[in-house]
Amino acid sequence: MTRRLFWEDMYMKEFDGKVVRVEGDRVVLDQTAFNPRGGGLVSDLGELGGSPLVEVIKEGEEVVHIVRDPARFKVGETEHGSLDWDRRYKIMRMHTTAHILSAIVNRETGALITGNQISPDESRVDFSLEAFDREKLTDYIKMANEAIGRGLPVTTFFMNREKALTTPGLVKLANAMPPAVTELRIVKIGDVDTQADGGVHVANTREIGEIRVQRTENKGKSNRRLYFTLS
Ligand SMILES: [Zn+2]
């Protein structure tokens, strides 16, 4: 199991990790600050041991770094990693925003989130809705921006799996949690949203800025997609 340094400090930009396995272009370390692709978030990028990262992925409880130059890695050696922080910080801001938006649309309409894609420059969230009423949507965005503007603290803690699974609303993707995981990480955004989540967030919603809706799309009869950016 890879120690996830980004769970201990989501603002960690550089770190050292020991190589535990190299397979082709895949490098596994004992610990990493690179957040892998998953939960709708695109992978962190940056440099590891002087090699650019192609992508970082999750395999079971391991974080796998796909590197451009695998020849320079040897098991047992310590390597230095540095994140593309500009990209990562945008992902953190986008991700916290997606949670707030989803919580507000869910509260106001009962709609569930059927998908999301959190990218540095534009993100999208899919809702199980028959229609996106223009005026209502404007209201939801206003509510979300108000919540963001309140400067809500974002905190994380761990909870026993059984307790988390029996707390209503906490685990939206129960099947996505492997049974081997006995402690689930919970992310709490002020009084707006609390849920099991493995991704990276800002520490305070003040860091986000303001949501700008780019466009909406119909993705099937009861699926509405919302694209947004931050300013
Ligand atoms: Zn999330």
Explained architecture:
The longest helix has 25 residues, at 85-109. This protein has 4 helices and 15 strands. Strand 14 (211-218) and strand 15 (224-230) form a beta hairpin. By secondary structure, the chain is of the alpha+beta class. Helix 2 (85-109) packs across helix 3. Helix content is 22%, strand content 37%. The termini are far apart. The strands form 4 sheets. The chain has a 6-stranded antiparallel β-barrel with strand order 2-3-7-6-5-8. The chain has helices spanning 5-8, 85-109, 134-149, 161-165, and strands spanning 3-4, 14-23, 26-29, 31-32, 46-48, 51-59, 62-67, 78-83, 113-117, 123-127, 154-160, 183-189, 193-196, 211-218, 224-230. Bound molecules: zinc ion. Zinc ion (ZN) binds next to helix 2. The site of zinc ion has 5 residues, from helix 2.
Question: Which descriptors apply to this entry?
Answer:
single chain; 231 residues; alpha+beta; four-stranded antiparallel beta sheet; 4 helices; 37% strand; binds zinc ion
In terms of topology, how is this protein built?
Layout: E1 3-4, H1 5-8, E2 14-23, E3 26-29, E4 31-32, E5 46-48, E6 51-59, E7 62-67, E8 78-83, H2 85-109, E9 113-117, E10 123-127, H3 134-149, E11 154-160, H4 161-165, E12 183-189, E13 193-196, E14 211-218, E15 224-230
Parallel strand pairs: 1-4
Antiparallel strand pairs: 2-3, 2-8, 3-7, 5-6, 5-8, 6-7, 9-10, 10-15, 11-12, 12-13, 14-15
Bound molecules: zinc ion.
Zinc ion is lined by residues 39, 95, 99, 197, 199.
Q: What percentage of the residues does DSSP assign to strands (E)?
A: 35-45%
Got a strand count?
A: 15
Give the strand line-up of the largest sheet: 2-3-7-6-5-8
What Rg, in angstroms, do the CA atoms define?
Answer: 18 Å
Q: Assign an overall shape.
A: globular
Poorly predicted regions: none
The structure class reads alpha+beta
Mean pLDDT: 94
Distance between the termini: 37 Å
Secondary-structure element order, as H and E?
A: EHEEEEEEEHEEHEHEEEE
Q: Sheet with the most strands?
A: 6 strands, antiparallel, barrel
Q: What is the tally of helical segments? A: 4
What hetero molecules are bound to the protein chains?
zinc ion
Helix content: 10-25%
